Amino acid sequence: QLVESGGGFVQSGGSLRLTCATSGFFFSGSFMSWHRQAPGKERELVASITPSANAMTYADSVKGRFAISRNNTNKMVWLQMNSLKPEDSGVYYCCAGGVYWGQGTQVTVSA
Predict the structure, then answer these.
(1) Helix (H) or strand (E) holding 96
(2) Which of 17, 29, 45, 48 has the lowest CB atom count within 10 Å?
(3) Are β-strands 32-37 and 90-96 bridged in parallel, bridged antiparallel, or unpaired?
(4) How far from each other are the two terminal CA atoms of the chain, in whole angstroms?
(5) What 8-state DSSP symbol labels residue 28?
(6) Would you say 10 and 95 are in contact if contact means Cβ atoms under 8 Å apart?
(7) pLDDT confidence of residue 17
C-alpha cells in the first residue's frame, strides 16, 4: 500500500513537500518514483530514487527545483518541490518498482 499526502494549493514560487507512506512490500529493495498527471495529459515521471538512495533522476522540467529522498527504516519517500510553477500542477503519484501505485495527491499552483 502507498499513501500520498502533502498536496495542496500554492502560489507560483512556493514550495510543497509530498510524503509517501508505504507498507506491504520489500521497500528497501525497491526503486521508488514520483509521477504526475495533468488534466488531458499522460502521466509522466518526475523523479526516481534507487533502493540505497545512491542515485536520483529527475525530469528535465524539475531539475534543480525538486528533490526526492527516502528512508528505508520508516519505509517512506518524499518529494520536496521548490520554486513551483503553474505547469507543475497535477495529481502526483508515488510508485514502487513500477508496479504499485498510490491514489495520488493533488497539487495546484496558481500563477
Answers:
(1) strand 90-96
(2) 29
(3) antiparallel
(4) 34
(5) G
(6) no
(7) 98
